[in-house]
Amino acid sequence: MGTLGRAGVVTVVGMLMCGVVFGQGKQVKTERRPAADSPAKSERTKPATGDNGYYILDGLPVLLTLYHDTEVGTNKPIDIYAFVIELQVMNSDGDLEPEGLQIFNFYTAHPQDRKGDVNPRNARDCAKWYTLQNKALQERDPKSKTWPYVEFVTATDARVLQTNEHGSVYYSDDIECWGASDRFPPF
Fold it and tell me: Is residue 32 pLDDT above 80, yes or no?
């Protein structure tokens, strides 16, 4: 290899090292749903209907953790999940494009209103979608123009329960999870 070739290689390696040494990754921000200090609400104000009755969050499943807590006032034991989803840009060029925002969703592990609940397995379904979509992400072909993601759906008037350690949590009766793959062509 000639002197010019060596100089080129050294320059490229030097530029790569500068990027690693001096470059800083995007800071990860967090958000909590519901807000930790949301007031307890055991009644729905209006039934959730149509597109304006739900809040939909799409993104990559980051973490799912089960906590043991107690309800404020009664000290009744209650299990809650924290489902962390990193917001993603969907339908883009196919590359993962994290927004740098991780949203912590807290909800009960079991329904609180069994007689009025249409799907008492919502919390269990979220755990299944978390597992399935993480497996699909691990097996994803890096050349693929699509990627798996989860969709976390919350009723806009979701009921909230206060816990002693983790603050406000949604009733699992008022949330749903879905898994999907971004299958639309790039813009």
Answer: yes
